[in-house]
Amino acid sequence: MDRRNAVKLISAAGAGLSLGFKSFDLDTSNIRARAIGTTNEMLPVVGLGTWQTFDVGSNSTERDALTQVLRELRNYGGSVVDSSPMYGRSEEVVGELSAKLGITNELFMATKVWTSGKQSGINQMNQSMQLMKKPKMDLMQIHNLLDWQTHIKTLKDWKEQGRIRYIGITHYVSSAFSKMESIMKSEPIDFIQLNYSIDSREAENSILPLAKERGISVLINRPYGGGSLFHKVKGKQVPDWAQEFDCDSWGQFFLKYLLSNEAVTCAIPGTSKPHHMVDNLKAGLGRLPSAKMRGRMIELVGSL
């Protein structure tokens, strides 16, 4: 089944129908959390990305749905919301909607600097913090390593001054991993953000082990391969053996594979649909696949 139909059936199961899988309630006390390596602050393992999905105007229907996405994130124990100046109006929308819900201080907000030059970077980061209504940003990242040598100096200064809590670097293509690894070895960063999915596993070779070794926390973007994974499983049933790791949808299947890697701190799939937000959060509940099961998952996806 595709993701939309899977989620519908999951909801129906709560009304008395059965998928044949173990059923469990969303309980915030059960949402898995992992420690930020440099401080041991705990973060829920499933968060929210905002690329494309939060780049909306003033349309009330769109904004109401996004408000509910943020509400579900908090209701079920999530906190990480990641944005960027690159994402159009996403920072502004996150800031306005979280303030409307009164949850700004409950969210772990992350954004990025995406420009060249020291003063340009300072101006952009100030604007981002204003838009997101976060005078002290939880995590500021250098987007796609753009002019990173310049911005890393500002980020270290701002962290020392208490203007930001954590600093990091990001990229979305595997070809950038070697450069990211070099920075990880030479700079005191707290986070990396990178692409990783069950059908794009290059991160497992070197950069994730290095992050674990150095105590650097990891955010995962493109956990569904930009949506391509759902095309692969369209019309197909989640395998019966997925119940062994408390999985009842393809979305959970793909996320639980990533979360079973202990180097991963938090996956941040984007969505504009509240029921997808809930389904994503379910990946943070219950058991995770064993090493043997991970191999079986890879084999299944590779056969599609």
UniProtKB/TrEMBL annotation:
<feature type="domain" description="NADP-dependent oxidoreductase">
    <location>
        <begin position="46"/>
        <end position="291"/>
    </location>
</feature>
<dbReference type="InterPro" id="IPR023210">
    <property type="entry name" value="NADP_OxRdtase_dom"/>
</dbReference>
<dbReference type="InterPro" id="IPR036812">
    <property type="entry name" value="NAD(P)_OxRdtase_dom_sf"/>
</dbReference>
<dbReference type="Pfam" id="PF00248">
    <property type="entry name" value="Aldo_ket_red"/>
</dbReference>
<protein>
    <submittedName>
        <fullName>Aldo/keto reductase</fullName>
    </submittedName>
</protein>
<dbReference type="InterPro" id="IPR053135">
    <property type="entry name" value="AKR2_Oxidoreductase"/>
</dbReference>
